[in-house]
Specification:
8-stranded mixed beta sheet; 29 strands; mainly beta; about 55% strand; 5-stranded antiparallel beta sheet
């Protein structure tokens, strides 16, 4: 007896849209323009390029950029052109923007951002020369720019402190006392630190080129040293202080699962699907969501979910009525909701769906 596949319906809960097409029509005539001229017009406006959700799912950070004008741009510098970055904070319940940041510089390929676990703070960074801290409750921003030093935000911990790598020095800063500018220098005896993750408020996992170390934060003493298996580490997640999930390549297709304190390999995962999606966790585990077009004539789509802790995967099929499925999309799954960013010329929109 042939088993039928259950297909769920994706129901739209809300949509946020930035439509520059209407502004363009009002400001100028676009007919008979060359591709280069249209691209220059396109660059005049802000566009959404990514988004992220707070842990309590009450707020969405929307990241927009606009290409900076360069009047003496050579072929050598064109590929490294920077853009203006701004952050909008969307209150999901009211579907309204409650805060818009000042402009930052964007030079990184991917935005570096972190919400605090209580969703009171958001820190984000578009380039080495500075970063932004947003007090979500007070709707205030604090901008830090330093032309001489190179800063890189590492993480926010569970007590609203964040860790900063400044010129190979790890600094701890309390976001709740950010006006005081008090920085605690964690004196690790390493020349080059690739990754840093604090856990349980008193320990840290420090990754260098050759080893990983479990250390006390108070005195920076090494508790455990673990030899690294490969050189590439592009993502690292600690689950409930006993398991590490590490991304093994830049394509998000290979991962390892290890016990944190012993370094023992639990499983190695290869050939995961490279697609739009995200890695997220809840109290029961950590999962990789991959969004795929099932190539069905009836507009059926598929989400493949891989459970890192249990080593199993499952598939969800769904359908939704969308006129934008031919455009580029970025999809993420968090909580029980699916969020999709659709990029189509001068119009970008983010939609939230629930599957039923």
């Amino acid at each position: 007896m042939e088993q039928t596949t259950k297909i769920m319906d994706a129901i739209v809960l809300w949509t946020y849209e930035v439509d520059n097409e209407e502004m363009l029509v009002l400001n100028m005539e676009v007919h008979n323009k060359s591709d280069e001229q249209l691209q220059n017009i396109f660059d005049e406006y802000f566009h959404i390029f990514d988004f992220g959700l707070s842990y309590d799912l009450q707020y969405m950070a929307i990241f927009e950029d606009k290409t900076r004008k360069s009047y003496n741009q050579s072929r050598r510098t064109k590929g490294s052109q920077k853009s203006d970055l701004r952050v909008k904070l969307l209150d999901i319940k009211s579907n309204s923007v409650v805060f818009e940041s000042s402009l930052l510089c964007k030079g990184f390929l991917h935005i570096n951002f972190h919400f605090s676990l209580d969703s009171h703070y958001l820190i984000c960074q578009g380039y080495w020369d500075g970063y932004l801290v947003i007090d979500i409750q007070e709707k205030k921003e604090f901008i830090f720019k330093n032309k001489e030093d190179q800063d890189f935000i590492l993480q926010m911990d569970s007590i609203n402190s964040y860790y900063l790598n400044r010129n190979k020095k790890i600094l701890k800063i309390n976001a709740e006392q950010i006006n005081l500018q008090q920085e605690i220098h964690l004196k690790f005896n390493f020349q080059y630190i690739i990754y840093f993750k604090s856990f349980l408020q008193q320990f840290a996992l420090v990754s260098t080129e050759l080893f990983q170390y479990i250390m006390y934060l108070e005195n920076c003493k090494v508790i455990k040293q673990i030899k690294k298996q490969v050189d590439v580490r592009t993502e690292l997640i600690i689950f409930q202080s006993y398991v590490i999930i590490e991304q093994e390549n830049a394509y998000q297709t290979e991962y390892t699962v290890r016990l944190l304190h012993s370094g023992r390999l639990v499983r190695r995962i290869k050939d995961l699907l490279q697609s739009s999606g995200n890695v997220c966790q809840d109290e029961f585990g950590i999962y990789k969501y991959s969004f795929l077009n099932d190539e069905s004539p009836n507009n059926h789509y598929k989400i493949k979910i891989f459970d890192f802790l249990r080593g199993i995967s499952k598939e969800i099929y769904y359908r939704y009525d969308s006129q934008n499925n031919k455009y580029y999309q970025i999809s993420k799954f968090q909580g029980q909701f699916m969020y999709t960013l659709t990029l189509s010329d001068l119009r970008t929109q983010i939609s939230c769906y629930i599957l039923r």
